[in-house]
Amino acid sequence: MSAPSSAAGYRHLSDHDLIAQAVLGASDAFGELVRRHSAALRTHLRRMGAQGADADDMAQEAFITAYERLTEYRADGPFLNWLKMIAARRYLRKVKTTQKYLLVEDVTPYETAPDLHQAGQNEGAARDLDGALSRLKPAERLCVTLNISGGLSHQDVSNETGLPLGTVKSHIKRGLTQLRAMLDMAEAVPAVIER
Question: Which biological process annotations from GO are given for this protein (predicted)?
């Protein structure tokens, strides 16, 4: 396949074709991958718990790492999932080095349960997945996001976070139960990924 003559010419190519072009040195091809996946990657990081500017910085760092390691991508899954794993590892390293909340085993509610009457009045806000995720305890939010958005199995989440497998399963189960209750639409919350 020959390289398109302009950056706009890359838009019709698949991720795999773009990666092949980028490996051959076409920086515009990688630019198209960044344009295509940056919003999803930032959303994934925010849902894990990264704050706005941190999420943007970590997404950018993840793209730089991906570019440097592009020849290591094995195409055994979607490119976006590979990016999410790179970004998740950067986020986990940051959480561990700053000794934030990740490994806390406290099972008390992270935030008070929403007032259902108030929630009904603010229906739009109550149905907001990101808002509901922000009400979960940080470890629950992280485990649910890695499992559902990142496509990792319980064992993979355990391996990446360093949390015991049983704890990961508990965090995911509690997190999904709370999300279903907050969103009041169980069918909208995707099924857990167990492998």
Answer: DNA-templated transcription initiation
Q: pLDDT per residue over 16-51, tens digit each?
A: 999 999 999 999 999 999 999 999 999 999 888 888
Give Cβ neighbours of residue 174 (< 8 Å, ≥ 6 apart).
140
For domain 12-106, the question of CATH label 1.10.1740.10 is answered with yes
| Joined tokens for residue 140 | 């629950």
Q: DSSP states of the chain as a string? A: -PPPSSGGGGTTS-HHHHHHHHHTT-HHHHHHHHHHHHHHHHHHHHHHT--HHHHHHHHHHHHHHHHHTGGG---SS-HHHHHHHHHHHHHHHHHHHTT-STT----S-SSPPPPHHHHHHTHHHHT-HHHHHHTS-HHHHHHHHHHHTS---HHHHHHHH---HHHHHHHHHHHHHHHHHHHT-GGGSPPP---
Whether pTM > 0.85 for this model: the answer is: no
Give the residue with greater pLDDT, 107 vs 70. Answer: 70
Residue 34 CB-density burial (10 A; 0-12 exposed, 13-18 middle, 19+ buried): middle
pLDDT at 119: 47
Q: In the chain, how long is the greatest CA-to-CA distance?
A: 60
